[in-house]
Structure formats: structure tokens, C-alpha cells
Known about the structure:
InterPro entries: Fibrinogen-like_C, Fibrinogen_a/b/g_C_1, Fibrinogen_a/b/g_C_dom, Fibrinogen_C-term_domain, Pan_app. The protein is an alpha+beta fold. It has helices at about 1-30, 55-65, 140-150, 195-200, 215-220, 300-305, and strands at about 30, 40, 45-50, 70-75, 80-85, 95, 100-105, 120, 125, 130, 135-140, 155-160, 170-175, 180-185, 205, 210, 225-235, 240-250, 260-265, 285-290, 310, 350-355.
Amino acid sequence: xxxxxxxxxxxxxxxxxxxxxxxxxxxxxxxxxxxxxxxxxxxxxxxxxxxxxxxxxxxxxxxxxxxxxxxxxxxxxxxxxxxxxxxxxxxxxxxxxxxxxxxxxxxxxxxxxxxxxxxxxxxxxxxxxxxxxxxxxxxxxxxxxxxxxxxxxxxxxxxxxxxxxxxxxxxxxxxxxxxxxxxxxxxxxxxxxxxxxxxxxxxxxxxxxxxxxxxxxxxxxxxxxxxxxxxxxxxxxxxxxxxxxxxxxxxxxxxxxxxxxxxxxxxxxxxxxxxxxxxxxxxxxxxxxxxxxxxxxxxxxxxxxxxxxxxxxxxxxxxxxxxxxxxxxxxxxxxxxxxxxxxxxxxxxxxxxxxxxx
Length: 358
């Protein structure tokens, strides 16, 4: 019986050595240690799968079976194998120094761009909101898109996936001045912003005429990062003249709070006009539309009075950015309750844009 067990152990040992030899041959044929950045391994941000392996050879063998895998990092202390969709850059820009960790890459591996990105001068050019060295993930917001890839792209519709959001969504970005997320745009009087609660939650887009990002998107964008809210009025058409009001630390609550306004401090130093601090008195208020009036003061019906939707409290608000546009001669106010206004100004704009800026 003992002899039989000993024979079985010997056979298993021989089989293990045979398999290891096969893996070693495969490993040496297909994988190399680069002669640059010898003290670096690829950042785990470029790993798509983590698994346990008994050795770096076994880790590399697992990679060899997957066309998506271009390189591996193996941490010897806990036998962790990282399969990477990327390669260590010649300048080590995507490398990190980790103790007891080795890096190998496929000998004939070629840098590949993901999600329809194109390779130009060994760099991936990404589209549609994808960012990263290999276009491997979606940007969290327009400001990250600007920093990562799109600083010269102008205005456009991009896909974003803010941190923690359950799914991605489209957002209009101006990839200038650090990358701006469009919240509201209104320039055509025939397109009013007196919309339903569902439309304000989901958003609507009529191009330059009228658009609103959607409260759900606005919540996810402002949930983690600190943003400024830029309110920009166009007061004259020829030549175009703009006036800007800036609020810092803008954020709102989620749907369970009816998108309660949680923060917004007037930044007078960055504002171009001496405006009333309209938002300060509205912090703590929930958003309201004509079919969902969440104003804590009953009987006012602010959405009906102001012809739009906003955060209202007390005597409604000292501003009405979602009201109606009245293109009056000289841009003078009509003093109608439902026009776009911001106290204490006696003018009404021909158009308004609101941006979320990081």
C-alpha cells in the first residue's frame, strides 16, 4: 500500500514537471521582459481580470489563451495574476513600482485601441466619451474628457459614466475652458421650458432652441465631484454680449428628496455682474414643476406663476432662469412674472445657458 502511494506521488510529480516544461516553453516563446522600465509593472488600472496562479509562468500561460490579454503582472507574495489589456509604455508613464511583482508582455504584442479608438503615432485617439490610454472606459464627466482626450474637440454629445452611476448617459460637453457640462440652454421664445416633471427628471433636447440635462443626470454628475454652476446670459445679439453669474459647490439630492438643492454659494469674485444671491435662500428646497409642486409654502404655485420649473421656497425665487424669453427692443424687462429674470436687473436676456464646471 505504501509502495503504491509512493508510486502515485512520483507519477504526479513527473506529470507536474511535464506540464511546467510545456508552460515554460510556451512562456519563453511568447513572452518577454522589456529591456526598458525594468523596475516597473503595469498599473492595475489597465488590468481586466485578476486570478490566482501558482507562478508567473502559469499566469503568462493563462494570458496566452486570451487574445484580449497583451501582458501580465504577477505578485509573488500572494500568487496574484493580473491580466492586462495594455502594454507598458516606453516612457513608463503607465507603470508603477511594486515589490515582489514582475511584468511580462507578449513578444509580438501590438498596442490596440478599444471602443473604436484609432492608433495615431502609437497613441490611441478616442471618440464618443471614451478615455484612457487604450480608450478602455467612459469619462466621468466633461471635465475629465477635456483633461484626458478632447480638449480640441469643441461642442458635442458624449457618453459619460459618473462614479457610482448605475449606467452611462449622454451629456452635451463644450470641450473648452476645462470642459463644461451643459445643464440648460434656451434661445428661442417659441420653445418654452414649461415642461412636465418627467421631462425635467429625464431631460429634453431641442438643440440651440431649448435643452435641459435632466435632474437624474445632474444628481449623478454632482454627487462626488465639486462643481461650479455657471449661469450665462446673452443680453445683446449684435455684437453678442454676455453676462455671467457663478456659484461654487453646487450639488443636489437624489430622487427620494425630489432632487433637493443641497449647495450653492455665490462667487462674486468670478461673477461679471452684481447679482442677487438667488440660490442661497433656496438651499433645502426640492425641485418643482407645474405638475409636481414641491414648494414647502402652500398656495403659491410658483411653477404656474413663473412659467417654468426650478427650486422654489417662500415667495418663490428672486430669479427665473427657466421662464419665457421676451425679445424686447433694447432688452428691457417686461416685468411679467413668467419672463426670464434675475434680480435686481432691469433687463431680460435673449438667451441663457447654464453649465456645470469642475
